[in-house]
Design the sequence.
């Protein structure tokens, strides 16, 4: 954005303890009056060097570590990891495991997008959507709790299978939840998405062009918000997503240029409905089977390297694993979607108003646990 | 393009500067002479047949006798993937930055510097990114020993 600055620049520190930074993120703003000339993110406050720790644990022991990256969508984090190890070892799981994994991943995606929408509304100044979203998210967490005992950090995906099968009759309850939940999305649209104030705060703010997005390695809903039709579930399917019918939602720019904060937000809301479609189809295809059928006694992949990516709620999650043929990963590198989108923040926020910084940050839907790892 | 075709194209274009290619691996890759990594990256990004416009991952691996910088590339246009590798000496690893090719490389390279001590020459902002600025050592190197304290705080 081209802005004439007066030259009277003030440096303003925002965070790391700031309610709108969704964790411990520090931004150093150079402001000219109300206009932000430069916003430099400083990350690393949650850095645990997980990639170093996992070099000292066996392959099965890595799963709980992956949970703690994106704690809002831990199911998807561990799913990406076990798929990478399975690819390295050449394990093919049975149909029940595949569909249960899809169901869990999509439920987790809904829960994660509900946090995104709820907290975004909260950032912009409306409190009710937050409560509505968390009310429905609780129902999803109840399913997870019933299945594996944990509400946030599950250790549910195992290499070669799952920790437990779902309880008898739960598939019916999941469908009932989806039936209940879909109309709630329309309620949320009436309350928040189509709200005049909300649109004014988001629709012409933080425009990210498709070229910028691709150059900065932005993925997931943030990329699709810029109008790029790309979804790993469609373009490089895993777990049998190619058998299921759903649409890739992209930003259309109903209320301003394509790639605005509103577009990024709205992609998530529309994706939630697609996830409901996927869950219904996956439940209908569930067949009996043993979820631990292919769990190996000892996880010892052959020497080699693998790159596996999955579509996590916040974008493309990649695992690059180097194995030396021993019981522990020689090197594990995570491509974190939040890390790459955060690197685009400086570019997108240049020339915005101070209040818009919150709006842009919220629309990126970052989780600092995943950025800092 | 298949990975075999990409490997053949790279060898044809850069000859001996492509040190080794394994297009049949599970993760197909080519090792590139570090001195020409920027040329190779510019080529794979701009050539219409390959058009790797998306840098998916950039990271280091410490193999104890060398440090490798890994570039996992993907093409949004052609939907194919290929990996480039740069083998660097463990003492003073240095390689040119590819920031000008993919903007996201800025942060990825800072992370590789932070974790492995790889210096990316020509980088606009070569600072640590995850660890504090005054942190000592490079945590993801295999011979790294964690310090017992940092600024009088036990680690």
Sequence:
């Amino acid at each position: 954005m081209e802005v004439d600055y007066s030259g009277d620049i003030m440096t303003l520190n925002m965070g790391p303890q700031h309610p709108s930074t969704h964790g411990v993120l520090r931004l150093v703003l150079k402001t000219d009056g109300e206009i932000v000339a430069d916003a430099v993110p400083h990350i690393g406050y949650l850095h645990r060097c997980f990639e170093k720790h996992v070099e000292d644990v066996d392959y099965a022991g890595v799963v709980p570590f992956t949970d703690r990256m994106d704690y809002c969508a831990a199911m998807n984090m561990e799913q990406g990891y076990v798929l990478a190890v399975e690819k390295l070892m050449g394990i093919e799981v049975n149909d029940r495991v595949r569909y249960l994994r899809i169901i869990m991943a999509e439920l987790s995606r809904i829960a994660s997008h509900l946090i995104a929408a709820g907290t975004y509304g909260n950032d912009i100044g409306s409190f009710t959507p937050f409560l509505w979203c968390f009310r429905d998210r609780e129902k999803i967490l109840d399913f997870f709790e019933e299945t594996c005992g944990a509400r946030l950090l599950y250790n549910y995906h195992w290499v070669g299978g799952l920790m437990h099968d779902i309880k008898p009759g739960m598939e019916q309850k999941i469908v009932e939840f989806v039936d209940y939940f879909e109309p709630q999305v329309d309620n949320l649209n009436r309350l928040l998405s189509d709200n005049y104030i909300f649109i004014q705060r988001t629709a012409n703010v933080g425009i990210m062009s498709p070229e910028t997005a691709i150059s900065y390695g932005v993925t997931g809903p943030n990329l699709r918000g810029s109008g790029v039709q790309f979804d790993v579930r469609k373009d490089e399917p895993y777990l049998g997503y190619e058998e299921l019918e759903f649409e890739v939602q992209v930003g259309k720019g109903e209320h301003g240029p394509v790639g605005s904060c509103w577009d990024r937000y709205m992609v998530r809301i529309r994706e939630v409905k697609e996830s409901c479609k996927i869950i219904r189809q996956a439940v209908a295809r569930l067949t009996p089977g043993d979820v631990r059928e292919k769990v190996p006694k000892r996880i010892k992949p052959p020497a080699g390297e693998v790159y596996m990516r999955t579509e996590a709620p916040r974008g493309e999650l990649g695992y690059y694993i180097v194995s030396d043929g021993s019981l522990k990963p020689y090197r594990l590198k995570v491509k974190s979607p939040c890390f790459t989108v955060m690197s685009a923040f400086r570019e997108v926020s240049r020339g915005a108003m101070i209040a818009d910084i919150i709006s842009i940050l919220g629309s990126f839907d970052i989780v600092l646990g995943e950025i800092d790892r | 393009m298949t990975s075999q075709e990409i490997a053949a194209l790279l060898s044809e274009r850069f000859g001996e500067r492509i040190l080794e290619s394994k297009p049949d691996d599970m993760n197909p890759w080519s090792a590139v002479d570090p001195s020409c990594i920027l040329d190779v990256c510019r080529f794979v990004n701009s050539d219409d047949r390959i058009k790797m416009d998306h840098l998916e991952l950039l990271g280091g691996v410490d193999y104890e006798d060398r440090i490798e910088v890994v570039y996992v590339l993907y093409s949004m246009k052609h939907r194919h993937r290929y990996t480039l590798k740069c083998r660097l000496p463990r003492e003073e690893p240095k390689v040119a930055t590819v920031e000008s090719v993919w903007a996201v490389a800025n942060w990825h390279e800072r992370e590789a510097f932070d974790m492995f001590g790889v210096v990316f020459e020509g980088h606009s902002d070569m600072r640590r990114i995850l660890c504090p600025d005054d942190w000592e050592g490079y945590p993801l190197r295999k011979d790294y020993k964690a310090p017992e304290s940092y600024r009088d705080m036990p680690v």
Observations:
- The first strand of chain A starts at residue 10 and ends at 14.
- Chain A touches chain B through 38 residues (CB under 8 Å).
